[in-house]
Amino acid sequence: MASADGTAPSPPSEVIVGVLAMQGAFREHASHLTRLNPLVSTRALEDPPSIRALLVRSPADLERCHALIIPGGESTAIALGAARAHLLEPLRTWVRRGRPTWGTCAGMILLSREAIGGKKGGQELLGGIDMRVGRNGFGSQVDSFERRLDVPALASLPSSKRRADAGDDDSGFPGVFIRAPIVDTLLTRQDIQAVAPSEPTLVAREAGEAHADKSVTMQQRSPSRGGGDDNDKNSDAAPSATRPSLPTTPSSSSAFSSSSKTSASSSATEGASILCVAPPLEDSSSPDQRTPRPPLEILASLSELPRGARQGAGGAVAAAALDQEPIANRPEHDAQIVALRQGNLMCTSFHPELTADGRMHELFVRQCVLPFLSSSSSSITSS
Question: Where is the composition biased (Low complexity) (predicted)?
Fold first, then answer.
């Protein structure tokens, strides 16, 4: 709400950033948040608030928070823990309302609209970011790696400027990838609007892949116009011009090929990839009113895919797709994307919490959390 003199309000004197503490590296995130204090004042933020970390284990904990971090760990275990703590629906409501949320590794999976590579029966997702991710897309534990990442958004942070003044010209961020998820494909506005809110998009997938417990056949990205009917969902026709049908995301078994279509009765086939779709962001009382989506912003990409990584279902991004819905700094393959933002939601496939560098935490607070709290549309007050 605006203040009495009509100016936008300042953030509260203390900002509480929750860390979902079901499983994973939640204590490491909390430690980074604590070390942000005191935030350095800037011209845009002359009186910065203090940052307090709160471990979130219940709906009551979540209600006390201004922002939330979902840590790396095991996404299925985190989702199961949240369900047992009666947190799943509060978390989904949180995301639907556009509250600042950052997911790292497993948290990135939970924030995705769609995820592949889950176990039979699927897994719970929160949704919020228009992408499909592949679990363990960078390979198994033995394929874990570290890579210096170019994150241009970090350059404007006071901590980066202090490093530069001290003679540290290395602006790269230490990316730690441990069984990391991969961005299988970014989902465009046309992809999402071509299907019902609770249905998977029509982007090419592995033949025999299952949608939860239902088997689906090879699906293609819908054309920008006239797509999305029931016949299109199971079409084996040539892909649309928006994306070439290059290598599809492999399942855990090589038994499936483009010629081995499965029927609904074979959904339990061993080795089929599982496709999970997050509950719709739309209000259930107005399912036909589609929720406006903020643009996707790519924060960091790998210059090339490491050994063992999957290219993703979309293959190389076609020029037609770039013209249809251009996204700045989009690499040749969406699978090269390792950090992105959509509105107040941010995700990274790597683990900033496992490094000594706190700049990604500072970036989340300064660019996602504080602007949200200071906006005239925010009605959040300090607890």
Answer: 237-264
Beta strands 210-211 and 182-186, pairing class: unpaired
Determine the pLDDT at residue 269.
Answer: 38
Among 1-10, 45-54, 93-102, 260-269, name the one with the lowest average pLDDT. 260-269
Helix ranges, the chain (H): 26-35, 59-63, 75-84, 88-96, 106-111, 158-165, 189-193, 230-233, 319-324, 359-364, 370-374
Residue 158 pLDDT level (bands cut at 50, 70, 90): confident
Nearest to 82 by CA among 99, 115, 107, 46: 107
> Count of alpha carbons within 13 Å of 215, Cβ hemisphere only?
17
User: For 45, which DSSP code?
Assistant: -
Judged on CB neighbours under 10 Å (0-12, 13-18, 19+), 217 is: middle
Dihedral over Cα of 264, 268, 273, 276: its sign: positive
Task: Kindly report, residue by residue over 91-102, the tens digit of the pLDDT.
Answer: 999 999 999 999
Residue 13 CB neighbour total at 10 angstroms: 10
- Give yes or no for a contact between 211 and 254, defined as CB atoms under 8 angstroms apart: no
368 pLDDT more than 70:
yes
Which among 18, 15, 19, 16 has a CA at the least distance from the CA of 48? 15
Domain 14-204+273-285+293-381 carries which CATH code?
3.40.50.880
Q: Which of 145, 111, 153, 165 is nearest to 297 (CA)?
A: 153
Tell me if 159 sits within 8 A of 362, measured CB to CB: yes
- HEC profile of 181-233: CEEEEECCHHHHHCCCCCCCCCCCCCCCCEECCEECCCCCCCCCCCCCCHHHH
Task: Residue 57: count other Cβ atoms within 10 Å of its Cβ.
Answer: 17
Helices (H), 230-306: 230-233
Please give the model's pTM, rounded to 2 decimal places: 0.78
Mean pLDDT in residue range 25-46? 87
Give the integer Cα–Cα distance in Å for 381 and 66.
9
Q: What is the pLDDT of residues 316-337, one digit of tens each?
A: 665 555 666 789 999 988 999 9
For the stretch 185-214, pLDDT in tens is: 999 888 888 888 888 887 765 444 444 433
